[in-house]
Amino acid sequence: MLAARKKPASSTPQPTIKITALKKIFKVGEERVRALDGVDIEIYPNEFVAIMGASGSGKSTLMNILGCLDQPTSGQYILNGYPTHRKGMGKLAQIRNQEIGFIFQSFELLSRSSALKNVMLPLLYSSTSKRPRKKAKAALSLVGLSDRMSHRPNQLSGGQRQRVAIARALVNDPSILLADEPTGNLDSKTTVEIINLFKDLHQTGQTIVVVTHEEDVAGHAERIIRLRDGRVISDHLTAEDPIHLDWVERMAAGRGSLAEVTQAELEINAQADANRPEPTKARGFFGRKQPKPAPPATSETVDQLDNWDQWEVEQ
Amino acid sequence: MSITLLSPVRGIRRLILQSLFIALAQVWANKARAFLTSLGIIIGVLGVTVVAAGLDGMQGYVLNQFEGIGAKKMWIWGNVPESKRSVMSWTDAKMSTYEARLILDKAQAVDTLTPTCNSNWSVSFGKENLQNVNVTGIWTAWHEIEDRQVVYGRPFSKIDDQENRQVCLINEQGIEELNLSTDPTGDYIIVNGRRFLIIGTIETKEMSPMMGGGQSRAEIYIPFSTHKMMNPYSWTNLTVQLHDPKFAEDAKAEIRFILRNHRNLGPEDEDTFDMFVIQSAIEDFNNVARVIGLVMSGVVAISLLVGGIGIMNIMLVSVSERTREIGLRKAMGAKPPVVLLQFLVEAVVLCVIGGLVGLFLGNLLVATVQFIPNLPIESISIPRWATLLSLGFSAGVGIVFGMFPAIKASILNPIDALRHE
After folding, report:
1. Strand runs labelled E in chain A
2. Is residue B254 in some structural domain?
3. Does residue A311 carry a pLDDT above 60?
4. CATH architecture for the domain at A45-71+89-260
5. Does A124 sit within 8 Å of B18, measured CB to CB?
6. pLDDT tens, B136-178?
7. Across the interface, do B336 and A126 touch by the CB < 8 Å criterion?
8. CB-CB: which of A80, A82, A97 is closest to B332?
């Protein structure tokens, strides 16, 4: 069904997403926060990429820019060969409508409208949509909800809601599917369902980018990009990603929890911090002296954290 | 990036229809709130319609009263202008029968007219003798112009005037004062030494004080030519009936032209005659009604303004309540103008629904008022212009007061809107 709709990749495929030297700087009071500090990523058609990072790593900012919801301070973002940086709100809205399918953590469905109406929402704002009802029905049956079309979101389970949201993201046949923590509000069983749906979509040729902080979700992607402090610190295929491999090993051995920081991650983080160039203007918080850099994390501190966890459980 | 453009008109129509459906769904979802919000508009429109209907009814009533006197009536009389008082005699300014005929023939706006001349003569019947009875000479057209019934006998005929017959009509007061029988037709009375046959009696008309009425008195009417025969020097006025009150200004212009031409007045000469049209009085009244209407419009406009502020308030609430929805719609590709249109249409829908409810209530009220017995205003209805005006005005209020919230919604940043709690 979806297989035929994507053009087969040519010998030298054009990247779907090509961002170079992307920077996003927020001004919070007098402080300038570098949410993204020179990011270069290329994502090719029919890739399934997970973007990972701790909170504050800039992954949400990157997601917003990838989704054309926000504009970079500097750098380039070329989507399907079309430069999107420095475009007006109207043009960006058109790109969001035609080229990007967005999936949110909290689904963001219109509570008063039926599933079908929700899926038809992007078609409302597209000037090309012919037979919107038929398209929306096709998208809903693609996510396996053909029998829930007239249900309202509050009559659906969380997994079904996210499926509606996925159908909505797919309805305009986007060149890229962007999911921001798509399983963040779901239990583990429905998480698996949604991940499998993503995998199916990927099989049919859909390019997918997922932002997540869960290693097991990221493990289903082909490629994992890790961000830290607005920079890409690691970009590997999942099968070669040292942090992921470390995590898989630990899980297999039955040690640790899902959220635990692995040794490989600690090393990579420490290396990334060491490589970070000092900001040109050495100004600290409110222009005071630069605070002391935090000591690099060691396994010792992690152990302390573990102990603290246990202490809490014992209580 | 394949973007085929539909024709812009079709696109805009589709957009407006979409926004309309969203707005109607929104209003339906918040029925109570929508009602309370549009209450200001409802009251405003109710005000417009009721005030318009009331003014219309009052105007109709008063104009009807004027119609009773004769809205079509006008008077013409000779007049010596101030500057000519020393060189011109009043006799030269007097209206002549010839001029009366001339106006009747030439002036298009004039339906009919009669010259009238008044003399106070002594009248006697048997032993009764009255001094200074008002004797008026008239043409037969007088019967058409004055709405006065001949109670007994017959009205004047043309031949009475042509042959200078000594016949007269007398009113009830005259009958009483002369001690005549109730039906004095066929009796003879002596007017200024001449013997007159009474051919009928004529009702005395109640005249409003405004029109110079008051104590009724004995009146005798005789043919104009007979009167002129008895006193060729008596002062003469013309009483004119127009085809329609709306020709008042035309009639004035025509008559002025005819008389100036006939009297050989040069461009620098002032008129040697003057005229008065009932229509002028009606226009005075209309001016008063217009002022009342303006004051009422002001009050109504203020209430619509207050209603509009209510609309703006609720639209602002709606925008901040639905910030996430706006963010989602924007993320799904709604351009700023589309979001603007959606909220603008919603405000206009609220206002127009309020306007329709107000119109309905206004019609209901007016229909109820018509059931009240003994109301001087016979027919009262909401004029069409008031209906259109109030609907247009409420839509306008929607656009004006919906604009600010709509702009606020349209310039929202999609990320911030989506993060809004």
Report:
1. 17-28, 31-43, 48-53, 74-79, 82-83, 100-103, 176-180, 208-212, 223-228, 231-237
2. yes
3. no
4. 3-Layer(aba) Sandwich (3.40)
5. yes
6. 999 999 988 887 888 889 999 999 999 999 999 998 888 888 8
7. no
8. A97
